[in-house]
Task: inverse folding
């Protein structure tokens, strides 16, 4: 037996090649009873390693490969079975090294301090060929080596704190990695009483992987292969015990000494074997201490008390019967929470939610957590699970014991404030951010592979652009099959490097690439958190755990997803502006959910800017579906998901809803469950209820069944149970057969209703705001840009709604879109090329009296000054005079001609003659078309009028219809529509044929056109390129308010315009 | 040192270690303990394919260094390359 003590996994960024799970499997099959993972610079793969070891019944050993300042690299292994002090010391070593940023290193003093406590070694430091001691040995400098070793021994004198690491990579005799060097290190260690151990400094599982290691080296050094010293050979693999014995003998030239070397290695391995539960807190849930949460006594009693006392808040003036129902449900939920021991967890999340609310930041829950009444009462979720018929069991049950995910959506603009507040509230010893390992995918893998081969970047980009749609693993087969890759296939035949490129790209695919901050995860723990996870600095400056989201559950760590949602920011902004300008205080979370005006507005399909239902596809579905109540929004959002779409659930549901087909419930018992969706199984909750109803298994068990339906290994036993129990309950074989077919095929396509309902809330709220406060709402959308469309489309939508758009004004505009009594003031930040500093100066030095005053005190660059004047931002400085924008522009050009700009000095009376305001007179003011063109160029949006309007005479002559008129036309009418392209989509189709969807905005709304093969070939040259289009086609009615166009042809408006003008001239 | 690249016939002991070889019609007897190591190749210059599973042979090569005596009992240091896959030996260096 041999235990490998130095093994870098793929989580050693750009160094190790093999995933920890594969290394553990291989070691176990070689008969090892333990295996170490020693990633470079961090414990990135440690949890996955421990998990794999536990699964295969071998002991994990964990260490880190770390640079010691000025002295090379060492391996630090945690001692095990010591109640966690070894693991904690290792975590602190890694955190200390990461603290100072890159390159990551630790001083020997600090390392010794952390590793040795009260004369006891908590970790073992291995010094090998990568240290000053090893370098001296390689250089055959015995005296320097002896001095170096003496120093190491002086710092790490505690028993077990230090060992010499011998590695024999069978390199050229006398070179680094050779047995001769190892022999010298061994001899010196023996003479000085420092123990030696044998490792293979493993970087990969098998010799073949050495090629991948070469490429990773290139990516790490940022140099092509051939321009740095590569690894000496392919020996750094996970060698079996027999090979390790031979290597030992080659070093010692003495079987007996080799035996002792191997024994010493095993003795160190034994010392470092970890017991994950006892050493690392594996699987033990950790939450902040009660005192941190401000609670006393039994947490469950506190939770019980808080939840019950919130009933009055959430359900004021409620009837006795419903109150009973609520209490009953709450009681059941709380019993489950108590059984699982999660009371503190819920109190913690509630505490965070309350803190966010106290910061006056909008908050909403997402995911299955919305199905919990407890979450609703604690203010974690804003969706009433009883009203919306949501199930707790989908979220939490005694059948599972993993910590549930509670995801919180907050205003995106305040997310970082919240993170900082969480750190302040719980203390930075209890909180860290979560990290995320990104992996190599097609394009990135190809880039780094190309750089390794020294291909030039343009060439790589060109190939990558062709290949990105295919996973790197299937490049070869894609090249053989796809006609559009014929060029690549040809290149492969001719070009050797291209072949290498494809081969190494396939090798890199899916390897970890780099670590970054998880976009929304926060870990909350108790005061021991930093003893359990190493941390490093995130991009945000706050400490971040080296573990990722998959590591949380095994480590018993509580992860809270605090996700920034721009729509929440946009809505908060609207509410704030409403109060600021009109003094109207609005509680968006308290508005009634049955406002008819809101639903009527949604039904028009003018849903731009509304959360979740503004995409072309959702707009089309809105036209067909015509929602009338909140639950309809939940259903619509849930339907428009990959699962229900693949499961073909939309059409049967709509048929049922509109009475085209009679709803089929299979059995009267299922009618109450499926009535809301006309017999179509859409929600996970449906599946749970059907299982429960027909087998009496209980909802908790039912959710386990639902989860296992996708797993063919267990679904057979679930089927047996279902058939048997349903038969006992008297359901006919036909009913059982039909229901089982549905459960089996639909379950994996379904959607969690609680999640849909959680999303429907901001959908409804944003629709309500758009209906009742369009000015404030659009100002919020402009400012926080939450949707999928460019801002100019929202501007067009504002104009369509009659919201007044006020031009940029240097005396009034800021970096936000402020609401004024008569409209929305455009913001300064849209002026292309304006710097942050210019913007600040403009705001700071207000008000301005005249153009020269603005020039002198705001000190804009020439370009910015001219741009501001062009879009009318200086117009207000001459308001009420005989001057126009043409005169202002003339003055601006005069000022811009001054070679040496005068320095602004507020104490000096202004004497400079040039700056005395004297506007030229009689210049031509720009026309409206010129103004719109200038706005599009400078602001990237048409504020004063719609960009299409300039072509109106031609469009009218051609008989182009407004998009708002389409709904009044008969089915299959021949029409022409025009507009600015706002979306182009080519979704994958079942038939494999490409279909192109183009949405145009013409100032009256949006039109959506579909191009099939033939139409595509007619206008292929403009299909993806031109911005302003005319499309000819036939209307296709899809629903009451749904009309789309089957396109036949399309033209470039500007091209037609120049022909038209030539003709009419 | 002279660089050579000649195929040679090698006789080995049961561990695979050379005991003698024939070169240019002469027979050379190994009279030191041969040292084996693994050197590397620049596959990005030499190879056509490096797909997964192609094996380390694309990257590394087995080298042997030994003292051997020619029929005239003149001793020199020699380096041989062994392609283990094809069991082909080449003499690459002589240190004179």
Result:
């Amino acid at each position: 037996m041999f235990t490998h003590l130095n093994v870098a996994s793929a989580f050693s960024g750009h160094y190790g090649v093999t995933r920890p799970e594969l290394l553990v499997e291989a070691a176990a099959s070689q008969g090892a009873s333990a295996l170490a993972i020693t990633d470079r610079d961090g414990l990135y793969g440690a949890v996955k390693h421990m998990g794999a070891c536990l699964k295969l019944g071998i002991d994990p050993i964990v260490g880190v490969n770390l640079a010691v300042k000025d002295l090379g690299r060492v391996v630090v292994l945690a001692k095990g079975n010591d109640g966690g002090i070894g693991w904690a010391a290792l975590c602190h070593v890694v955190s200390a090294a990461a603290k100072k940023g890159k390159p990551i290193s630790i001083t020997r003093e600090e390392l010794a301090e952390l590793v040795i406590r009260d004369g006891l070694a908590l970790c073992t430091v291995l010094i090998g060929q990568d240290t000053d001691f090893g370098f001296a040995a390689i250089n055959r400098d015995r005296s320097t080596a002896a001095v170096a070793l003496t120093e190491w021994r002086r710092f790490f004198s505690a028993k077990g704190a230090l060992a010499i690491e011998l590695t024999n990579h069978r390199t050229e005799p006398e070179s680094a990695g050779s047995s001769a060097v190892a022999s010298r290190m061994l001899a010196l260690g023996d003479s000085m009483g420092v123990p030696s151990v044998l490792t293979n400094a493993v970087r990969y599982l098998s010799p073949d992987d050495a090629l991948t290691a070469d490429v990773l080296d290139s990516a790490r050094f940022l140099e092509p292969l051939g321009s740095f010293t590569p690894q000496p050979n392919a020996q750094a693999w996970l060698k079996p015990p027999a090979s390790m014995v031979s290597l030992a003998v080659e070093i010692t030239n003495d079987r007996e000494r080799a035996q002792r070397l191997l024994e010493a290695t095993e003795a160190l391995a034994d010392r470092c074997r970890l017991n994950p539960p006892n050493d690392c807190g594996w699987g033990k849930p950790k939450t902040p201490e009660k005192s941190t949460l401000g609670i006393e006594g039994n947490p469950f009693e506190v939770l019980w008390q808080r939840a019950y006392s919130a009933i009055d808040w959430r359900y004021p003036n409620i009837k006795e019967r419903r109150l009973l129902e609520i209490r009953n449900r709450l009681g059941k939920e709380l019993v489950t929470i108590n059984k699982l021991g999660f009371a503190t967890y819920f109190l913690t999340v509630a505490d965070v939610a309350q803190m966010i609310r106290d910061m006056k930041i909008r908050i909403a829950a997402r995911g299955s957590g919305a199905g919990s009444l407890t979450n609703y009462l604690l203010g974690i979720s804003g969706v009433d699970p009883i009203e919306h018929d949501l199930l707790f069991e989908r979220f939490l049950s005694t059948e599972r014991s993993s910590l549930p995910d509670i995801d919180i959506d907050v205003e995106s603009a305040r997310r970082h404030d919240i993170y900082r507040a969480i750190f302040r509230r719980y203390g930075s010893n209890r909180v860290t951010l979560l990290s995320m390992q990104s992996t190599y995918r097609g394009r990135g893998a190809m880039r780094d592979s190309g750089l390794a081969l020294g291909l030039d970047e343009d060439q790589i980009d060109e190939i990558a652009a062709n290949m990105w749609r295919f996973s790197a693993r299937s490049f070869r087969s894609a090249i053989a099959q796809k006609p559009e890759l014929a060029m690549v296939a040809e290149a492969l035949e001719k070009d050797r490097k291209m072949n290498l490129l494809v081969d190494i790209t396939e090798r890199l695919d899916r390897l970890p690439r780099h670590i970054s901050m998880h976009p929304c995860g926060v870990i909350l723990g108790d005061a021991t958190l930093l003893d359990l996870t190493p941390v490093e600095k995130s991009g945000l400056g706050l400490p971040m755990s080296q573990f990722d989201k998959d590591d949380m559950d095994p480590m018993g760590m509580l992860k809270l997803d605090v996700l920034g949602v721009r729509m929440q920011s946009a809505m908060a902004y609207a509410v704030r502006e409403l109060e600021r300008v009109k003094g109207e205080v609005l509680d968006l979370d308290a508005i009634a959910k049955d406002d008819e005006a809101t639903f009527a507005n949604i039904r028009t399909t003018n849903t731009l800017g509304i959360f979740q239902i503004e995409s072309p596809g959702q707009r089309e579905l809105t036209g067909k579906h015509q929602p009338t109540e909140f639950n309809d929004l939940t259903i619509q959002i849930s339907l428009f998901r990959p699962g229900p779409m693949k499961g073909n659930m939309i059409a049967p549901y709509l048929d049922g809803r509109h009475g085209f087909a009679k709803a089929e419930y299979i059995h009267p018992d299922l009618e109450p469950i499926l009535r809301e969706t006309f017999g179509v199984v859409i929600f996970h909750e449906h599946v749970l209820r059907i299982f429960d109803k027909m087998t009496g298994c209980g909802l908790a068990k039912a959710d386990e069944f639902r989860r296992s339906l996708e797993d063919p290994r267990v679904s057979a036993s679930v089927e047996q149970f279902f058939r048997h129990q349903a038969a006992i309950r008297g359901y006919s074989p036909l009913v059982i057969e039909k229901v089982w077919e549905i459960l089996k095929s639909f379950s994996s396509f379904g959607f969690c209703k609680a999640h849909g309902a959680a999303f429907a809330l901001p959908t409804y709220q944003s629709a309500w705001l758009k209906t009742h406060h369009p000015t404030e709402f659009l100002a919020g959308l402009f400012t926080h840009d939450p949707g999928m469309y460019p801002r100019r489309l929202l501007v067009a939508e504002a104009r369509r709604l009659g919201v007044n758009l006020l031009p940029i004004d240097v005396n009034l505009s800021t970096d936000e879109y402020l609401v004024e009594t008569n409209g929305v003031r455009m913001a300064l930040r849209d002026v292309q090329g304006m710097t942050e500093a210019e913007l600040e100066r403009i705001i700071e030095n207000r008000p301005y009296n005249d153009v020269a005053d603005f020039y002198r005190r705001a000190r804009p660059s020439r370009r910015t000054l001219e741009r501001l004047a062009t879009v009318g931002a200086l117009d207000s400085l001459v308001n009420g005079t005989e001057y126009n924008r043409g005169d202002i522009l003339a003055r601006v050009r005069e000022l811009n001609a001054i070679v040496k700009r005068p320095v602004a000095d507020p104490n000096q009376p202004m004497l400079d003659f040039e700056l005395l305001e004297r506007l030229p007179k009689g210049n031509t003011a720009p026309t409206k078309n010129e103004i719109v063109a200038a706005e599009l160029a400078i602001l990237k949006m048409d504020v004063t009028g719609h960009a299409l309007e300039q072509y109106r005479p031609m469009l009218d002559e051609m008989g182009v219809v407004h998009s708002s008129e389409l709904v009044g036309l008969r089915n299959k009418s021949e029409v022409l529509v025009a507009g600015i392209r706002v979306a182009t989509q080519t979704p994958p189709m079942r038939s494999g044929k490409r279909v192109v969807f183009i949405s145009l905005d013409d100032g009256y709304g949006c039109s959506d056109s579909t191009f099939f093969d033939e139409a595509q070939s007619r206008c292929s040259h403009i299909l993806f390129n031109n911005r302003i289009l005319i499309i000819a086609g036939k209307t296709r009615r899809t629903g009451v308010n749904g009309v789309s166009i089957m396109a036949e042809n399309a033209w470039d408006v500007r091209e037609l315009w120049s022909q038209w003008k030539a003709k009419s001239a | 040192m002279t660089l050579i690249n000649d195929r040679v016939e090698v006789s080995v002991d049961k561990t695979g270690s050379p005991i003698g070889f024939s070169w240019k019609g002469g027979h050379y007897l190994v009279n030191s303990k041969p040292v084996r190591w693994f050197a590397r190749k620049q596959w990005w210059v030499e190879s056509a394919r490096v797909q997964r599973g192609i094996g380390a042979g694309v990257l590394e090569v087995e080298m042997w260094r030994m003292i051997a005596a020619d029929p005239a009992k003149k001793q020199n240091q020699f380096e041989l390359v062994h392609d283990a896959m094809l069991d082909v030996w080449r003499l690459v260096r002589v240190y004179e």
Notes: The mean pLDDT of chain B is 92. The CA atoms of residues 28 and 70 of chain B lie 5 Å apart. Residues 2-95 of chain B form one domain.
